[in-house]
């Protein structure tokens, strides 16, 4: 059984759990600035999964990522949720609020950009990923966000779709080569 937000103690059964029975107990809670080092280490692990070639030295990345994460969680520019099992963080998802220009005829609520969604391989298919997305969606609805956008990986697309994400009808993308 998962618990979303230790401070509110809501029991949670992840959507799709009948397809992937939960075998581990875990909690989902908002990430704190104090989690920055662990989150930086998990990001390193996450990015190594699909990386081919010689990896850069992790020390520089870990230091840079730790400061970046701590700063953004501290000032509220970014939000994140983590899942813990056995007292250890084993997954995370991030949300960046994208402001919209004021509209004269409708609300200009921000849009949420969902990114950096990762669950340790040992905790996959147990409901942790669904629970993370449920916590993010619950917050986004209560905060009045207009909607959520994500650029999913091939592996994560089915999970996002089971969670209610759909391909957009009116979105264009222009990748800029750097």
TrEMBL record:
**A GO term for molecular function:** acyltransferase activity, transferring groups other than amino-acyl groups
InterPro entries annotated for this entry? Acyl_CoA_acyltransferase, Bact_Acetyltransf, GNAT_dom
The chain positions of domain N-acetyltransferase read 26-178
Organism superkingdom: Bacteria
Listed SUPFAM superfamilies: Acyl-CoA N-acyltransferases (Nat)
Per UniProt, which keywords does this protein have? Answer: Acyltransferase, Transferase
Matches recorded under CDD domains: NAT_SF
Name of the molecule in the record: GNAT superfamily N-acetyltransferase
Q: Report the source organism.
A: Streptomyces netropsis
């Amino acid at each position: 059984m998962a618990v979303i937000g230790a401070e509110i103690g809501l029991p949670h059964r992840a959507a799709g759990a009948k397809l992937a029975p939960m075998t581990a107990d875990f909690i989902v809670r908002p990430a704190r600035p104090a989690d920055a080092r662990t989150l930086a280490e998990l990001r390193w692990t996450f990015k190594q999964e699909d990386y081919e070639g010689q990896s850069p030295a992790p020390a520089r990345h870990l230091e840079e990522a730790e400061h970046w994460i701590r700063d953004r969680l501290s000032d509220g520019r970014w939000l994140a949720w983590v899942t813990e099992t056995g007292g250890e963080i084993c997954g995370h998802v991030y949300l960046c609020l994208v402001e919209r220009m004021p509209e004269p005829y409708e609300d200009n609520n921000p849009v949420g950009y969902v990114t950096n969604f990762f669950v340790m391989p040992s905790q996959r298919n147990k409901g942790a990923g669904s629970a993370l997305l449920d916590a993010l969606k619950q917050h986004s609805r209560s905060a009045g966000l207009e909607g959520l956008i994500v650029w999913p990986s091939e592996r994560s697309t089915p999970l996002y779709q089971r969670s209610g994400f759909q391909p957009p009808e009116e979105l264009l993308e222009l990748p800029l080569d750097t």
